[in-house]
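beta-N-acetylhexosaminidase (Aliivibrio fischeri), 635 aa
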Amino acid sequence: MMDYRVDLVVLSDKEKLNRFGLTLHNLSDVDLHHWQLQFTIDRFIAPESNSQGTLEQVGSFCKLTPDANQVLKANNHYYVEFSIGTAPFRFITDGLDDAAIFVDDGKNTHFLDVSISPIVLASPYSERTSIPRVAPSELSLIPKPESVQRFDGQFNLKDKISLETQTHLAQGAAQWLSDELENITSLKYPIKSQGQIQFIANPTLDKGAYQLSVSEDIITLTAGSNEGFVHASATLLQLINERTHLIPCAKIKDQPRFHYRGMMLDCARHFHPLERVKRLINQLAHYKFNTFHWHLTDDEGWRVEIKAFPELTQIGAWRGPEEVIEPQYTHIAEKHGGYYSQEEIKDVIAYAEQRGITVIPEIDIPGHCRAAIKSLPHLLIDSDDNSVYRSIQHYTDNVLSPAIEGTYQFIDTVLEEIADLFPAPYVHIGADEVPKGVWTDSEKCQKLMEEQGYSDPVELQGHLLRHAENKLKQLGKQMLGWEEAQHGNKVSKDTVIYSWLSEEAALNCAKQGFDVVLQPGQTTYLDMAQDYAPEEPGVDWANVLPLEEAYNYEPLAELADNDPIRKRILGIQCALWCEIINNQERMDYMIFPRLLAISEGMWTQKQHRNWTDFLARLNGRLPTLTRQGINFRQP
């Protein structure tokens, strides 16, 4: 048992203001002197609302210092109340993420471990979802193909089977299929000049489309693109009976509904090692995704090596008690972080390309820039800017200034290296969540507004983003951004808008002439809790997102099928934000099986989609996830 424990209780919750009681227990037989409780919580504690002591907060990181020389006596406790302007807490993960006691007697400093009790909620959700019990279907194909014909007979994946590629377009897919077959059967499947599994080019097939034919003696995979051959291979892998290694004879014709089918992974809030990133990309290939959106920079960490600015990873990739960047979320008593070298990134890009997946980097500007600003203060801080603001994640110092030269030097240099490193024709520049109040008390910003004839500070955001867009065009790249990228009305209609707040925002942008990718938090955010039970991990600011709702997401359902606005929808993306996800097990639990449900919404025409039918196919897929060691949530 630990010597120290912290309890958090919801004392009262109203729609917009909640009162909390926090108790720190000293369960040891020794008095505690010169102490401070440090903890993380991802809501903003109202200043001066604490009933005793001093409370400071930066981001999620809080320091509670008792009144002068207050001793926490042995077998005693310290109690404080405070308020948070928030919707009621519904989940245990709404409580404290981490806690530690910091002791500083003037000579030595050290941390003491603290156990955290589950938060005592005042009003957890009372409802629960239920899923019908359905027997596994024989052909458990996800996402559901356009047409499947079943024939008598089976192809046996016995020894001495080889793969034959009749086109260079199939080289990546053939190697991937060979590796995955070996994982299933423990046999080798060499690529030779002749073989029983044949990859055949058909240039008339659209990108991503494929045909698959299985007879007792031969399997043919036909496509006109590397992506199509990967999708054919993914379907073939799903046809295999993993117990008998037999493949039923069948003929499948298939093509995607949406051209863009993506997933975003946040590696800034918590650093995810290279193998974890590749493991996810491999799963995306199994379910016919073609885009991996890599969120590489944010307030809490800078994760990509920039050779011109080594400080970005020397300083910006790390946080902790002794670091320039304070602890956030977890690991508050120790150093946390990491970054990807340019060589490692090239490795990930090649790995994804083999699997038909394009890697799109995201470098978030002008907000969400605290890690960069802390790393390059000589370049990125306007010391005369006295503007007062607070970002949605509770920072007061995380926005680039559009009125200093260093900002443009930083943006240009970073974008040059990023454009050189990533072969994708796109770069995502974030542009979201710039708080109100920025740039309002800066002489340089006011002067810039006057020179440009701007009347609203939001136009300065547009000014900065237009510069980034023009820079990317010079580098041969197209700019992508969250829906706020069009705030300030300065970027061109070549910028692709990713809509996250709501579908309505996507519709507005499409009507203005922007191409859009739909990623509404309500139906595609995999950090949302999967059910209403308080012990379910996740958040619910957008929605609780059960499997059925993830499956039934139909993009812009109220638009007629023949509405010309639909041509502006490039596709759909799901996302995993990782404020409270710092290990493989939790990541798996939040992603699977909702990833499979969303994959079908991206790929399969809506007339072929059916919830009960999906569940039958999902039940047939779960043993494969088990074999792959994936800690999925039981549906």
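The chain has a mean pLDDT of 96. The domain at 4-116 is CATH 2.60.40.290 (Immunoglobulin-like). ok done for today
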